[in-house]
Amino acid sequence: MPATAILNAPTGSFTLSRRPHRDRETLQAWDAADEYLLHHLAAKDIAVDSRFLIVNDSQGALSTALADYSCTLWADSAISQLSSLENCARNERKPPLFVPATEIPQGSYDYILYKLPKSRSLLKYQLQHLAPLIAAPERFIAAAMARHIDHHVVTHFADYLAPARPSLARKKARLIELLEAPTPKAPADDSKVLSLPELGLTLCNRANVFSRDKLDRGSRLMLKGIELLPNATRVADLGCGNGLLGISAARRWPDASIYFFDDSFLAIDSACKNAASNTPTAAAKARYIADDGLSNYTDEPFDLILCNPPFHQDHHVGDHIAKTMFQDCVTHLAPEGRICVVGNRHLGYHVLLKQLFGHCDIIASDPKFVVLLAYR
Ligand SMILES: C[S@@+](CC[C@H](N)C(=O)[O-])C[C@H]1O[C@@H](n2cnc3c(N)ncnc32)[C@H](O)[C@@H]1O
Q1: How far apart are CA 57 and CA 74, in angstroms?
Q2: CB 245 less than 6 A from any atom of ligand 1
Q3: Residue 101 lies in a domain
Q4: Fewest 10 Å CB contacts: which of 39, 99, 297, 364?
Q5: Is residue 252 part of a domain?
Q6: This prediction's pTM
Q7: How far is the CA of 309 from the centre of ligand 1 (A)?
Q8: Separation of 19 CA from ligand 1 center, angstroms?
Q9: pLDDT of 209-250, one tens digit each?
Q10: Ligand 1 touching residue 265 (CB < 6 A)
């Protein structure tokens, strides 16, 4: 049973959990910006048949609290999708219609509620696609913790949507309201091309993809680690981002089946495109799965799991996602399988991996990162 907490909203009290599930959860499934939005809406005279487009509802708190209306949730996160389903079910509420960030919501909405994403590229991508959906400026309300609204955010609103003004703060959160109606323009392509001639790779990174402007130093070291690994036939690239690690595995072991997993739909789309352009034969038989870790994976275990784990979830920095990913690997690693992890030295992943698997060796290192190989 995941840990839960109660959100007291103007529309009712709701028991909510957050993902990834962990026993002693210290974070809530909502923040003060969600509460501010819900109280702001409660002061309006909202028709019962109103249609809401909720964007970036990271744990489904808004979708649950507003489920009496017709809600569509647009997000770049499998966690958001799964949490909104779980939280609505727990509270016997109708789940929202989910639209992944790789698709653009269609239809007309009476209100658009926009939680600011952490990624600036995702912010720009979403604002451009939201512009044609906004019926009138007062029908769009953005919200975030005050510390995440700087002048760049306000400038991006002006450049990609319409001039906007942050409200006064309430419990350290602010709303952002539009000062005029947006003038929709043709959205720009959100992909960035990253050319890595020294590796013989060209990667297309969509909005929100990790390290989309340059190759991450940890990922580069991990590529050296992959060169040292024994043969593998069933490989998972867990938290694949643009798919670099899985693609390198496919090149090293052309007969292997490669599975790409990520929370981000835009990352999965990037990995799929990159595998097709860099390793076409392997790409055709690879699988591309948006999920919270390996939580919905039920197929055969892997003999190799590659993982460059995230060190934050939205604005929450920490190793909690890495830990739940490693625990998922315990379930889905074949008895003779190996998990290969890259991490910042100071994070001490080797202690945890040794506890979980019994053995953990350092196979590559530089002054900042280590590549670890854990096995039973
Ligand atoms: C540090 S990046 C690594 C990306 C890529 N593998 C590389 O080495 O460049 C971590 C990735 O984990 C993904 N991620 C974060 N939380 C996740 C979760 N709960 N389940 C699956 N993927 C997750 C992020 O979207 C991100 O793409």
Answers
A1: 8
A2: yes
A3: yes
A4: 39
A5: yes
A6: 0.97
A7: 6
A8: 14
A9: 999 999 999 999 999 999 999 999 999 999 999 999 999 999
A10: no
